[in-house]
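ARCHIVE ENTRY
Sequence with per-residue tokens
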Amino acid sequence: SREKNYCTMPGAGFVGARAGARRAAQAQAARKSGTTPAGHLEETEKAFVSDIFKKYDKDGSGSVDKKELRSMMEDLNDGIPPTDEEVDYVLQAADASGTGAVELNEFQSAVTEWYLLLEDKSNKSKACTIL
């Protein structure tokens, strides 16, 4: 039997394909089951997201720039700063309008992307064994 360390194999990084595949599978399952899509928010949830958005939109510009996004990601990770790669990934994934910042309607997506990355990172560290 040949042993492989899947944690150090090229392309085994947590950013990218795994998170994208999980989101696609979740969206497809939601559509098939007729449940509310993951991106749909009820009114109370929208108000909650709006309040959090305002906390990180420190300059009141109506969007969260890269520096403000980094602050949000750090706060949601118990004070552990995200890497530049992580911030860039979340910004790119959430910035549907292409402005280089996250607007209110994109903010839920940014939070979701960050939690998916944290989950993948956690799962990767748990699954890093030599087979």
